[in-house]
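User: Good morning. I'm curious how 2-oxoglutaric acid would be positioned relative to this chain. Could you predict the structure with it bound?
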Amino acid sequence: MKTAYPDLGLDLNFVPVRCETPQAFTRDEIEQYNEEGFISPITLFEGKELRGVQEFFERSRIRLTKYETFRSFHHEIPELYDIIAHPGTTAYLRDLLGPDVVCHVSQYIRKEPDPDSIRKTIYHQDSTFNPMDARCALVWLAIDRAFVDNGCMWFIPGSHKLGVLECDDGHHIAEAATFDNQMPMELEPGQALFFSDMLIHSSPPNRTADAVRGGLTATYASTKVVPTLGEKNWAVMCCGEDRSGNWEVHQPPR
Ligand SMILES: O=C(O)CCC(=O)C(=O)O
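Assistant: Good morning! Here's the predicted structure, ligand included:
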C-alpha cells in the first residue's frame, strides 16, 4: 500500500519550509531540513534541567507497557507537557511550522539492553500515520546516550522528497534496505533530531549488555493543518493560539 489512507486522496508530498528570518535555527539549518529532511544535533536540555527530564522518565517507567513505550500522555501529565512544549523546543518549531503549533502524538520509547534483542523499528515514514492535508515535524529527544549498538535512530537523508513509498500493512518500506545512504543518528542525552514526517527512518535493536536507550518522540503540526478523517484530532497547544478550529485542542494539563 502507498498510504494507510488510500481513500482520502491526500497529497503527502513534502513542501519546503520558507522561513526568511529564522529565530532559532540558522538559515543553513533550514536549508538542510529542506534538502535532507532533518536537522541534527540540536541541544534542547542540559545540566540540571536534563537531569530533571531523565528523572521524570525514570519515575514514569510504571506507565510503560510490555512494549516498553508510553504514548500520548502529554495532555494528562504536566511534567511531560512541559518537556514537549518547552520554550527551547517551540522556538525551533516555530521556524518550521509557524507561530501556532500543536502536538498530537508523543511516545517515550525505551529499549532495554539485551544482546539477543530483536526489537527494532522498521523503516517507515510517519506521514503514513498522519492523515492530514499538510506535513508534520517530529522531534526525537535522546533521554540516554543513543549510539549504533544501543539502537539509535537511522535516517535516509533526502528520502523526504521521494513522496510516499510503497509500504506493507505494518508501514514497513522494504525498498529502504536497498538505499546506500542509510545514516546512524548518534546523540548525547538532551540532544534532539528535528525531522519531516516524510523522512524514512528506523532503529535497530539494543544489543548492548548495559546501555539503556530511551527516546522521546513527538509529532507537531501547525494549527492550520486539517486532520482529514472527518473528526477533529485531539492535540495540545504548545505555542501560539488556535486560530483555525481544526483541532480538538486541549489546554495544557495542570
Ligand atoms: O525511538 C525509536 O526507536 C523509533 C521512533 C520512531 O520511529 C518514530 O518516532 O517514528
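Helices lie at 27-36, 47-59, 78-84, 87-97. Residues 109, 121, 126, 138, 140, 201, 203, 215, 217 surround 2-oxoglutaric acid (CB under 6 Å).
Let me know if you'd like a different ligand tried.
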